[in-house]
Write a structure and sequence with these properties.
- The chain has a domain of 151 residues: Rossmann fold (3-Layer(aba) Sandwich).
- The chain is built from eleven helices and eight strands.
- The strands form two sheets. The protein has a six-stranded parallel beta sheet.
- Helix 2 crosses helix 3.
- It is globular and about 60 Å long.
């Protein structure tokens, strides 16, 4: 995207967005199908007992942020591209429809916009295509960005995600096996994303549907927006029932546009939406 002039009045120089259940609602059903695909992969490809898969899948997601990261931590050896192809490549993307309201909102803000997702590049691209938002973002941080293929581990590699969990019997804190996968909600993923995309967290607004991701983001210096809930929790600066509520919840973003000299930003003004947050 091209901007005619910078908006010096804005305290934000970047908007950082998660994708799944953030740019589109959980009610779309895509995430439910994704979970089914993950469980099917665990049974068919990793030969995990089917009756144990739902509990294992849920626990790994809780402990490691993604089931994939948890499986790698447990020592399962499988091709990451094969996993993504099975889990994301078979999703019913037709569930997602173009979102002209969100597109107008994003285009009306002359602020850099970056995607930050745990999903693979092909999935992110397909979701943005289905929503009609391909031209709304300036950069993408995704699975391949954070986990590039390499032939050997070097001292310069990013630190693994060190995870603390709880023993089911006595509830004492225990250190879980490290995962070689770099992903949200762990701080090393955020720090790596900041470095790769040249992001100043203290001047960035972060949107995500996961409370764990949001709470870690707050610790890194980001201003946080929890999407999908109107209830603010610890670590949450703003809470939006829908991403469409961004203009009502954060009017200062558009105030900066209005104050710009001559108001010469060439995108259309965003469509008004009903605030629910």
């Amino acid at each position: 995207m091209e901007y005619i002039n910078e908006i010096p009045q804005s305290k934000y120089e970047c908007l950082l967005f998660d994708v799944d259940d953030t740019l589109y609602p959980l009610s779309s059903g895509l995430s439910t199908q994704c979970t089914k695909n993950i469980r099917e992969y665990m049974v068919k490809n990793l030969h995990i007992e089917e009756s144990k898969v739902p509990e294992i899948c849920a626990q790994l997601y809780k402990d490691y942020g993604t089931t994939m990261a948890g499986l790698c931590a447990l020592g399962y050896d499988y091709d990451h591209d094969d996993y993504h192809s099975f889990v994301h490549g078979r999703l019913p993307y037709e569930y997602l429809k173009p979102d002209p309201v969100l597109k107008a909102l994003l285009h009306s803000l002359p602020i850099r916009k970056v995607i930050f997702s745990n999903a693979n590049e092909a999935h992110v691209a397909e979701v943005l295509h289905r929503l009609g938002l391909e031209d709304c973002f300036d950069d993408v941080i995704c699975f391949e960005t954070l986990n590039p293929k390499k032939t050997q581990i070097t001292d310069s590699d990013p630190p693994k995600s060190s995870v603390t969990g709880y023993d089911d019997v006595n509830k004492l804190a225990v250190v879980l096996p490290e995962s070689p996968i770099v992903c949200k909600p762990f701080e090393n993923a955020f720090q790596q994303a900041f470095k790769m995309a040249n992001i100043n967290p203290h001047k960035t607004l972060f949107f995500d549907d996961s409370i764990r991701n949001v709470q870690t983001a707050k610790l890194t210096g980001l201003t946080t927006v929890l999407v999908g809930s109107s209830q603010r929790k610890k670590g949450v600066d703003y809470a939006l029932e829908s991403i469409h509520n961004i203009r009502e919840a954060l009017p200062e973003l558009w105030e900066s546009v209005k104050k710009s000299t001559g108001g010469r930003y060439k995108r259309k003004v965003a469509i008004e939406t009903h605030v629910e947050a």
